[in-house]
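Hey,

Quick one before I head out. I ran the complex with 4'-phosphopantetheine overnight. Inputs first:
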Amino acid sequence: MKRVVCPGSFDPITFGHLDIIERASKLFDEVVIAVLVNKTKTTTFTVAERIEMIEESTKMFSNVKVDSWSGLLVDYCKANEINAIVKGLRAVTDFDYELQMSQINLQLQGIETLFMSTAPSHSFLSSSIVKEVASHGGDVSSYLPKPVVERLHTRLELLAAQAVNKK
Ligand code: PNS
Protein backbone atom coordinates (compact mmCIF):
# COMPACT_ATOMS: atom_id res chain seq x y z
CA MET A 1 0.00 0.00 0.00
CA LYS A 2 1.38 3.42 -0.97
CA ARG A 3 0.90 5.66 2.05
CA VAL A 4 1.93 9.29 2.48
CA VAL A 5 1.87 11.64 5.44
CA CYS A 6 0.68 15.23 5.24
CA PRO A 7 2.09 16.84 8.41
CA GLY A 8 1.42 20.22 9.97
CA SER A 9 0.02 22.29 12.80
CA PHE A 10 -3.39 22.75 11.12
CA ASP A 11 -4.35 25.51 13.58
CA PRO A 12 -6.87 25.42 11.92
CA ILE A 13 -7.10 23.52 8.61
CA THR A 14 -7.68 25.83 5.61
CA PHE A 15 -8.79 25.32 2.01
CA GLY A 16 -5.08 25.48 1.12
CA HIS A 17 -4.41 22.36 3.22
CA LEU A 18 -7.55 20.70 1.92
CA ASP A 19 -6.50 21.22 -1.70
CA ILE A 20 -3.17 19.44 -1.10
CA ILE A 21 -4.89 16.64 0.85
CA GLU A 22 -7.45 16.07 -1.89
CA ARG A 23 -4.84 16.00 -4.66
CA ALA A 24 -2.59 13.67 -2.63
CA SER A 25 -5.55 11.35 -2.00
CA LYS A 26 -5.79 10.81 -5.77
CA LEU A 27 -2.10 9.83 -6.02
CA PHE A 28 -1.74 7.56 -2.97
CA ASP A 29 -3.67 4.63 -1.52
CA GLU A 30 -3.79 6.37 1.86
CA VAL A 31 -3.08 9.89 3.11
CA VAL A 32 -2.39 10.28 6.83
CA ILE A 33 -2.88 13.82 8.06
CA ALA A 34 -0.57 14.13 11.06
CA VAL A 35 -1.13 16.97 13.52
CA LEU A 36 2.00 18.00 15.40
CA VAL A 37 1.70 18.00 19.19
CA ASN A 38 4.02 20.81 20.24
CA LYS A 39 3.70 21.58 23.93
CA THR A 40 5.99 24.62 23.69
CA LYS A 41 3.81 26.39 21.11
CA THR A 42 0.64 28.30 22.00
CA THR A 43 -2.14 27.31 19.63
CA THR A 44 -5.65 28.60 19.03
CA PHE A 45 -7.16 25.09 19.11
CA THR A 46 -6.20 21.99 21.07
CA VAL A 47 -4.92 18.96 19.20
CA ALA A 48 -8.25 17.16 19.80
CA GLU A 49 -10.18 20.12 18.38
CA ARG A 50 -7.91 20.35 15.34
CA ILE A 51 -8.29 16.61 14.69
CA GLU A 52 -12.07 16.86 14.97
CA MET A 53 -12.21 19.76 12.48
CA ILE A 54 -9.92 17.91 10.04
CA GLU A 55 -12.01 14.73 10.32
CA GLU A 56 -15.20 16.66 9.61
CA SER A 57 -13.58 18.56 6.71
CA THR A 58 -12.15 15.43 5.03
CA LYS A 59 -14.96 12.92 5.58
CA MET A 60 -15.69 12.87 1.84
CA PHE A 61 -12.27 11.30 1.15
CA SER A 62 -12.40 7.59 1.97
CA ASN A 63 -8.61 7.10 1.97
CA VAL A 64 -7.71 9.99 4.31
CA LYS A 65 -7.16 9.43 8.01
CA VAL A 66 -6.11 11.76 10.80
CA ASP A 67 -3.56 11.21 13.55
CA SER A 68 -1.26 13.22 15.82
CA TRP A 69 2.36 12.85 16.79
CA SER A 70 5.11 14.45 18.82
CA GLY A 71 8.85 14.29 18.19
CA LEU A 72 10.56 13.80 14.87
CA LEU A 73 8.31 13.34 11.86
CA VAL A 74 10.65 10.71 10.41
CA ASP A 75 10.27 8.57 13.55
CA TYR A 76 6.49 8.74 13.17
CA CYS A 77 6.89 7.72 9.51
CA LYS A 78 9.09 4.72 10.36
CA ALA A 79 6.77 3.56 13.15
CA ASN A 80 3.80 3.72 10.78
CA GLU A 81 5.47 2.29 7.65
CA ILE A 82 5.19 5.55 5.72
CA ASN A 83 7.96 6.33 3.21
CA ALA A 84 6.96 9.75 1.96
CA ILE A 85 5.86 13.18 3.14
CA VAL A 86 3.72 15.48 1.02
CA LYS A 87 3.95 19.25 1.44
CA GLY A 88 2.36 22.18 -0.34
CA LEU A 89 4.63 24.96 -1.59
CA ARG A 90 2.87 28.30 -1.78
CA ALA A 91 5.71 30.54 -2.92
CA VAL A 92 9.47 30.72 -3.13
CA THR A 93 9.52 32.02 0.46
CA ASP A 94 8.43 28.54 1.65
CA PHE A 95 11.21 26.86 -0.25
CA ASP A 96 14.41 27.38 1.81
CA TYR A 97 13.05 25.95 5.02
CA GLU A 98 11.10 23.18 3.32
CA LEU A 99 14.16 22.14 1.32
CA GLN A 100 16.26 22.01 4.49
CA MET A 101 13.64 19.88 6.27
CA SER A 102 13.25 17.54 3.32
CA GLN A 103 17.00 17.02 3.14
CA ILE A 104 17.42 16.28 6.84
CA ASN A 105 14.41 13.94 6.77
CA LEU A 106 15.98 12.09 3.84
CA GLN A 107 19.29 11.84 5.60
CA LEU A 108 17.88 10.85 9.00
CA GLN A 109 15.64 8.00 7.88
CA GLY A 110 15.53 7.92 4.07
CA ILE A 111 12.05 9.49 4.01
CA GLU A 112 11.24 11.22 0.72
CA THR A 113 9.41 14.58 0.52
CA LEU A 114 7.16 15.40 -2.41
CA PHE A 115 6.26 19.04 -2.98
CA MET A 116 2.99 19.96 -4.63
CA SER A 117 2.49 23.50 -5.85
CA THR A 118 -0.42 25.16 -4.12
CA ALA A 119 -3.31 26.13 -6.37
CA PRO A 120 -2.83 29.83 -7.32
CA SER A 121 -6.19 30.63 -5.73
CA HIS A 122 -4.77 29.49 -2.37
CA SER A 123 -1.19 30.69 -2.62
CA PHE A 124 -1.68 33.55 -0.12
CA LEU A 125 -3.49 31.40 2.43
CA SER A 126 -2.14 30.42 5.83
CA SER A 127 -3.84 29.60 9.11
CA SER A 128 -2.23 32.68 10.68
CA ILE A 129 -3.42 35.15 8.06
CA VAL A 130 -6.96 33.76 8.18
CA LYS A 131 -6.98 34.13 11.98
CA GLU A 132 -5.78 37.70 11.60
CA VAL A 133 -8.65 38.51 9.21
CA ALA A 134 -11.22 36.75 11.43
CA SER A 135 -9.96 38.52 14.57
CA HIS A 136 -10.86 41.85 12.94
CA GLY A 137 -14.33 40.65 11.97
CA GLY A 138 -13.50 39.83 8.33
CA ASP A 139 -15.37 37.15 6.39
CA VAL A 140 -13.21 34.01 6.22
CA SER A 141 -15.82 31.63 4.81
CA SER A 142 -14.02 31.39 1.46
CA TYR A 143 -10.78 30.33 3.14
CA LEU A 144 -11.92 27.71 5.64
CA PRO A 145 -13.97 24.51 5.48
CA LYS A 146 -17.48 24.99 6.86
CA PRO A 147 -16.90 23.05 10.12
CA VAL A 148 -14.07 25.45 10.96
CA VAL A 149 -15.62 28.90 10.30
CA GLU A 150 -18.06 29.02 13.22
CA ARG A 151 -15.59 27.41 15.62
CA LEU A 152 -12.93 29.97 14.76
CA HIS A 153 -15.24 32.94 15.36
CA THR A 154 -16.38 31.48 18.69
CA ARG A 155 -12.80 30.78 19.80
CA LEU A 156 -11.50 34.21 18.81
CA GLU A 157 -14.36 35.91 20.66
CA LEU A 158 -13.55 33.86 23.75
CA LEU A 159 -9.84 34.69 23.53
CA ALA A 160 -10.61 38.40 23.07
CA ALA A 161 -12.94 38.36 26.11
CA GLN A 162 -10.29 36.60 28.18
CA ALA A 163 -7.69 39.20 27.15
CA VAL A 164 -10.02 42.04 28.24
CA ASN A 165 -10.69 40.35 31.62
CA LYS A 166 -6.95 40.03 32.25
CA LYS A 167 -6.42 43.80 31.99
O1 PNS B 1 2.05 23.60 9.70
P1 PNS B 1 3.50 23.81 10.07
O2 PNS B 1 3.61 24.33 11.49
O3 PNS B 1 4.23 24.66 9.09
O4 PNS B 1 4.18 22.36 10.02
C1 PNS B 1 5.56 22.18 10.28
C2 PNS B 1 5.85 20.72 10.67
C3 PNS B 1 5.01 20.32 11.86
C4 PNS B 1 5.50 19.80 9.50
C5 PNS B 1 7.37 20.59 11.00
O5 PNS B 1 7.72 21.57 11.91
C6 PNS B 1 7.75 19.23 11.56
O6 PNS B 1 7.79 18.24 10.85
N1 PNS B 1 8.01 19.19 12.90
C7 PNS B 1 8.31 17.97 13.63
C8 PNS B 1 9.79 17.89 14.06
C9 PNS B 1 10.64 17.47 12.88
O7 PNS B 1 10.61 16.32 12.46
N2 PNS B 1 11.38 18.45 12.28
C10 PNS B 1 12.11 18.29 11.04
C11 PNS B 1 13.51 17.80 11.20
S1 PNS B 1 14.46 18.70 12.36
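The chain has six helices and five strands.

Talk tomorrow,
K.
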